Amino acid sequence: MKVAKFGGSSMSNEEQFRKVKSIILSDPKREVIVVSALGKRTNEDDKVTDLLYLIHAYLQHDVDWTPLWKRICDRFIQVRDLLELTFPIEKELSAIQTRLQNEKVSQDYLVSRGEYLTAQLMAEYLHYTFVDAKEVIFFDYEGEIDYEKTTQAVRSFYEQQTTLVVPGFYGANPFGKEKLLGRGGSDITGAVLAKALNAESYENWTDVSGIMMADPRIIDSPKVIEEISFRELREMAYMGANVLHEAAVFPVQEADIPIQIKNTNEPEAKGTRISNHEVEKENGLTGIAGRKDFLSITLFKRHMSDEIGFIWKAMSIFANYGISIEHIPSGIDNIGVVVSAEAIADKLFLITKELKEKLGVEEIEIIDELALISVVGGPHKELIGLSGKVLSILNQLGIRTSILSQGAQELNLIIGVANDQYETVVKGIYEGMVTAHVSETSDGITSNS
Ligand code: ASP
Questions:
Q1: Which residue puts its alpha carbon closest to atom 6 of ligand 1?
Q2: Does the CB atom of residue 116 touch ligand 1 within 6 A?
Q3: Which atom from ligand 1 is nearest to the alpha carbon of 8?
Q4: 137 CB contacts (<8 Å, ≥6 apart)?
């Protein structure tokens, strides 16, 4: 069986519901369906989840929330009517409204109603059974998913009825009350259910045809990565390529269940398959990701390399200020510490002072407005050629890199350039390695020429 999760844009109106139904019915293995709340119909539109968060804020400040509530009600009623369903949505909506008027409802209860109602409508439309997430997704006292309890509950529903619709984004806390999984959390619901049912695959249906090799805001229609390993995905996601909630990866990766990213608006497109399998890539390149606004702090001290524990002591100073370290390029008697500029902003002076006073650091060089670009490669042997190609592209572009390092697992190459050169470098690497490669091979010239 497969677990299929449909995001908010796949559930935004009656037309999207129709597409989702035909996708589900085209593969009888798509038995357990997870849905997000009605999403944006156009760029200017609002997600039901966002409106519900707003209503909760309005309630706290005693602002009239009824116009927002009416917008939500109208959207659900419209979908129900256009699909000619019989679900008594007005009754459900008025029960929620009564609670809002008479009680201090929790944010988690209120916001989760988006998924709850969307799943009710989808269940009727598919003739599948609705299962409240509160009955199948359980949290423990630490706020973590209680897998034992969850697995037992999911399996017992599935034994009685295999075709189920479950609202994403929430579950039950140990007191049986709604608890949210955090923004974008329906991805996690799908992954948890796939693991609990030991699904053959976890399909994640969204509005893009997979994970792209580079940011589409920089590269015009970048190629989609058809196969990516969980490890490569982690590299891409950490550096900013976001398609899937990061926490959705762990449950399925552990259970060795592949994730298939698919586009509801283009179901024939292959999408991206994410699995434990490392596939050799054409030209050695999986993708390029990156982020701006880092700061590099390089510490110089004579004979630093002979001093046991120096790096540890330096890192503890950053840790004591709650600064997460992104990267540590090092030389013989110097180490660089790359951190988020925003995170360190008002602590920079105190940290450098401590480094000098406590560790005897002699010189500190700071480079700000730094962007990090991660060039993610396939399996190890592919990467050998990759580094050489990237370096020659940087050379051709005449770009000076302040950081250049290869990950310990040799899966990626990290390049530090000035913020304002970020787009040029991403473009240069993509064009040099992907676009040029495609045109060369189509001309019949070998790809490595
Ligand atoms: N509807 C929720 C959100 O917008 C959860 C989800 O879509 O995954 O964050």
A1: 184
A2: no
A3: 7
A4: 145, 150, 166, 170, 171, 172, 181, 189, 192, 193
| Choice from 46, 54, 115 to test ligand 1 binding pocket (greatest atom count within 8 A of CB) | 115
Q: Which of 137, 186, 187, 243 to mutate to test the pocket of ligand 1 (most atoms within 8 A of CB)?
A: 186
Structure tokens at 304: 């630093």
- φ and ψ at residue 236, rounded to 5 degrees: -65, -45
Give tens-digit pLDDT for 40-75: 999 999 999 999 999 999 999 999 999 999 999 999
Higher-confidence position of 56 and 304? 56
Q: What ligand 1 atom has the least distance to the C-alpha of 37? A: 1
Token pair 């539109």 is found at 45
pLDDT on residue 186 = 97
Q: Are 166 and 189 in contact (CB under 8 A)?
A: yes
Q: Ligand 1 mean position to 111 CA, how many Å? A: 10
For 41, how many CA atoms within 13 A lie in the half-sphere containing its CB? 8
Q: Is residue 285 classed as helix, strand or coil in its secondary structure?
A: strand
Residue 432, ligand 1, Cβ within 6 A: no
Concatenated DSSP letters of 144-191: SB-HHHHHHHHHHHHHH-S-EEEESSEEE-TTS-EEE--TTTHHHHHH
The count of other CB atoms within 10 Å of the CB of residue 389 is 18
Domains of the chain and any CATH numbers? 2-275 (3.40.1160.10), 286-435 (3.30.2130.10)
**Ligand 1 proximity of 169 Cβ (cutoff 6 Å):** yes
Query: Predicted confidence band at 440 (pLDDT cuts at 50, 70, 90)?
Result: low
| Ligand 1 lined by 189 (C-beta under 6 Å) | no
Q: What does R_g of the chain's alpha carbons equal in angstroms?
A: 25
Q: Name which of 182, 169, 163 is nearest 27 in CA terms.
A: 163
Give strand ranges (E) for 20-63. Answer: 30-35
Ligand 1 nearest-atom number relative to CA 182: 9
Is the alpha carbon torsion for 163, 167, 173, 176 positive or negative? negative
Work out whether the CA dihedral 125, 131, 134, 139 comes out positive or negative.
negative
If you measure from the C-alpha of residue 169 to the centroid of ligand 1, how many angstroms do you get, rounded to a whole number? 6
Can you read off the two tokens belonging to residue 416?
A: 């530090």
Which letter does DSSP use for residue 217 in this model?
T
Classified as helix, coil or strand, 286 is: strand
**pTM for the predicted model, two decimal places:** 0.89
Per-residue pLDDT tens digits for 244-271: 898 899 999 999 999 999 999 999 999 9
Length of the chain, in residues: 449
From the CB of residue 292, how many other CB atoms can be counted at a distance below 10 Å?
A: 17
CB 184 less than 6 A from any atom of ligand 1: yes
